[in-house]
Design brief:
Length: 157
């Protein structure tokens, strides 16, 4: 009898713990809405990027996002790595956007510029984005990997 109470408590904790891990919930969907170069206020001549993710929450509970980790490669070279921890809550059966602002790593940007100076000038580059969102109370991270072309427009003279 003495060992039944701890066993019952352990079983109860296991069941309630699994409920908190997102069992029975559908995974949210994440789509890349836009990825664009934006002016960088540092004056270093390197672009910054705005990454906008569209998040769909197919569950009745609000989706709270604890944080995000992301990286961007330009022409196969790692250019940006970042984290964010002030992300919006996505209401149940709702959708919302997550905006990530990423400045170029100066050393990586200088290397990329040096490599590009040895090539013919161009305004279009291949990019790949990897992002991981960490939702509160959901059993697994939400990941997105996407690639495409980005146009870096030159500033007017």
């Amino acid at each position: 009898m003495r060992f039944r109470i701890p066993a019952v408590l352990a079983a109860l904790l296991l069941v309630t713990g699994c409920a908190g891990l997102g069992v029975g919930r559908e995974p949210p969907s994440v789509f890349l809405q836009s990825f664009q170069a934006v002016p960088n206020g540092s004056g270093a001549g390197l672009p910054a990027f705005e990454i906008v993710l569209r998040v769909l929450n197919p569950n009745p509970e609000p989706l709270r996002l604890r944080g995000a980790v992301y990286s961007v490669r330009l022409d196969g070279r790692r250019l940006v790595e970042g984290v964010a921890n002030e992300l919006p809550q996505i209401e149940g059966y709702g959708e919302g956007t997550v905006v990530l602002n990423a400045a170029v790593d100066v050393l990586g940007g200088v290397r990329l510029l040096a490599d590009l100076m040895n090539q013919r000038p161009r305004d279009r580059f291949e990019y790949s984005l990897e992002a991981r969102l960490d939702p509160v109370g959901f059993g697994r991270d939400i990941r997105i990997e996407q690639g495409g072309m980005i146009e870096l427009s030159r500033p007017p003279r």
